[in-house]
């Protein structure tokens, strides 16, 4: 598999991580996916995606501070790497180009 090949869920997680800046961790990512898509995922599924993205060097992680709401445990915080941003840029541009083609084709059909 190509290093920069990502699936739809990986793309969504990358977008959420990028949107959250330095506040992205598994629970927040899961909640955002549910909120935005209505798609219910187990937090372990999010951890699997995050692990794959980190292996592909598309995200970076570090341990955050200890919090009371987590019983004194720290949480792993994720941020988008330069490679991750680059992969997202290519995906978005490709989709935009295809969408423009779709609109052009629809207009041609309407006029023809």
Q: Which regions contain 5 or more consecutive residues with pLDDT less than 50?
A: none
Structural class of the secondary elements?
alpha+beta
Task: Write the CATH fold name.
Answer: Arc Repressor Mutant, subunit A
- Average pLDDT, to the nearest integer? 92
Biggest sheet features: 2 strands, antiparallel
Give an account of the 3D structure.
It is built from 4 helices and 2 strands. It is of the alpha+beta class. It has a two-stranded antiparallel ribbon with strand order 1-2. It is elongated, with a radius of gyration of 17 Å.
Explain briefly what this protein structure is.
With 112 residues, the chain is an alpha+beta fold.
SSE order and pairing:
Elements: H1 8-20, H2 26-37, H3 43-55, E1 59-66, E2 74-80, H4 82-111
Antiparallel strand pairs: 1-2
Give the tags.
single chain; two-stranded antiparallel sheet; alpha+beta; Arc Repressor Mutant, subunit A; 61% helix; 112 residues; elongated
